[in-house]
Amino acid sequence: MELNKILEITAEIVNEEAAQVVEFLYHNPGASEFDVSEGIGFAVSQIRSLLYELKSKNLIDYDRRKDKEKGWYLYYWKVVPLNFSKVYMNEKKKKLEQFRERLENEENNVFYICPNFCKRLSFEDSLEHNFTCPVCGTLMNEENKSRKVEILKRNIKEHEHFFMES
Ligand SMILES: [Zn+2]
After folding, report:
1. CB of 23 closer than 8 Å to CB of 3
2. Which of 25, 56, 101, 120 is most buried, by the most CB atoms less than 10 A from its CB?
3. Burial class (CB in 10 A: 0-12, 13-18, 19+), 129
4. Which CATH number fits domain 3-79: 1.10.10.10, 3.40.920.10, 3.10.28.10, 1.10.357.20?
5. Ligand 1 mean position to 154 CA, how many Å?
6. All structural domains of the chain with their residue ranges
């Protein structure tokens, strides 16, 4: 997979900062967190958390070596280009499932919303409060969910389309 695609995927499923880390590692395999920090100018603590997140998604890996003098382990990171398309597919699949669940939840439930936007409650919860807002006491209205449902349906269609094409 070419670098541009790798960076695009990283930005989509993690974030832009992570894409910068991946770009640096791609050009400097075996870099330590300190090298990355120096290379792209983020704090070491931020680099560390980005590295852990990328590692948890299997987009990067490390070699660990013990520093004989100090006795602690040093980590040398590298990108694993082969994993990107599988990880991306799985993330898309997860997203599609989440959208479907949310759509089902929206379609099967009625929500009540405060006109001052303090609270959004399920039918059961708003019944318990006699359909008045527990924060400000105003009468709550049934939420118009058509816009939300429309957006969810569009997202689902886009994701299904993605799987049909790939
Ligand atoms: Zn309210």
Report:
1. yes
2. 25
3. middle
4. 1.10.10.10
5. 31
6. 3-79, 86-165
Residue 129 Cα to ligand 1 midpoint, Å, equals: 12
pTM over 0.85: no
The candidate with the shortest Cα–Cα distance to 27, out of 7, 49, 51, is 7
Cα(148) to centroid of ligand 1, in Å? 21
Q: Report the candidate in 136, 92, 85, 96 with the shortest Cα–Cα distance to residue 113.
A: 136
Amino acid 165: pLDDT: 81
Q: pLDDT by residue (tens digit) across 15-49? A: 999 999 999 999 999 999 999 999 999 999 999 99
| CA of 133 relative to ligand 1 center, distance in Å | 5
Residues in the chain: 166
